[in-house]
Amino acid sequence: MSEAQPAAASAPEAAAAAVLEALNSTDSNGTEALNATAKFVATPEGTALAYGSLVLMALLPIFFGALRSVSCSKSKNAADMPETITSRDAARFPIIASCTLFGLYLFFKVFSQEYINLLLSVYFFVLGVLALSHTMSPLMSRIFPTSFPNKQFQLLFTQGTGESKEEIVNYEFDTKNLVCLLISSVVGVWYVLKKHWIANNLFGLAFALNGVELLHLNNVSTGCILLWGLFVYDVFWVFGTNVMVTVAKSFEAPIKLVFPQDLLEKGLGASNFAMLGLGDIVIPGIFIALLLRFDVSLKKNSRTYFYSSFLAYIFGLGLTIFVMHTFKHAQPALLYLVPACVGFPVVVALFKGELTEMFRYEETPPEEEEAAANDDSSESEKKDQ
Question: Cα separation of 249 and 196, whole Å?
Fold first, then answer.
């Protein structure tokens, strides 16, 4: 995070945070920063409004993404199937993120920033439309009346013939999904043409919510490995070099949430933004979502670990803003978010005597769970025979 004169401070690709493949492979996340034009001095009211709005926008995808991750973990629909992060993935993630970050830094140094951002705009236009459409889909299902003619469609691509035929793409959708796609496309065109901060935020919120919903940690130990690894990554690249700052300033993509500090003076045309990277939302968010699923697995009708980690996130983000505002220097948000989001639930688990149970909790991917259920049913059939 940063304010006024200090330039941005974190994550080059938190959109990766929102989309399955990107987050697990290349353009990884980290954290972004709060940033504004050097000559602009925000009023106390404008600063409070901007920071308060960013905190609220950060909480929304974590809260609703975590809730949706519970049903997503039980889904058998291929389109809604979560991507599971293992301990091996978590250990490699900071290394991949560092290589990607430095690669982007070299790209911006060697090639024209204008052409790179043009290519990224097209790439994130496609990802943003799909992410926003997926985010809107449950809402649209509630809005449309039951009498609405909702036709079913299937997009199927196969390879080969006969017994060797293999499915490449098998996507099922309906009329409501097409309406969501149309609305998302309008937002996408608006973003590409105008780069308006509201369109940016719509895409950013969609990326963040999808990331929290669809990226699942398989256990708490994996979450700790991932968070502490990115803790070191974030601190090193923010305080140790100017690489992250340079990339964050050059990178034009909806990988952050923004809110103008001069909104009260200039209205919707305001241009001096405070920014929060999606990595600061998605990385702690997927850990908080895991703790919610752990709460559900306990079957005690309580959400103790979810609410404790959620409150810890609010505390950590508030502390980041306070330190940044006090010292007038960019801050890596994960420096404060990771200890808070991991420490608070661990203290609660120690107090309740459930620490061992929490670290033993293991999530089974839906496909493995279904295969195990099929094996059990076949064994029972054999016994019956």
Answer: 17
**Residue (of 250, 355, 384) closest to 294 by Cα position:** 355
Q: Which of 234, 262, 375, 376 is catalytic?
A: 234
d(C-alpha 134, C-alpha 130), whole Å: 6
Q: Which of 280, 295, 375, 384 is catalytic?
A: 280
Rounded CA-CA distance 320/208 in Å is 19
Within the chain, which residues score under 50 in pLDDT?
A: 2-38
Residue 72 to residue 65: CA distance in whole angstroms = 10
Q: How far apart are the first and last CA of the chain?
A: 65
CA max distance for the chain: 81
Active site residue 280: yes
Looking from the CA of 43 toward its CB, the CA atoms found within 13 Å total 8
Q: Are the CB atoms for 29 and 23 separated by under 8 Å?
A: yes
pTM above 0.90, yes or no: no
Place of tokens 């690489």: 243
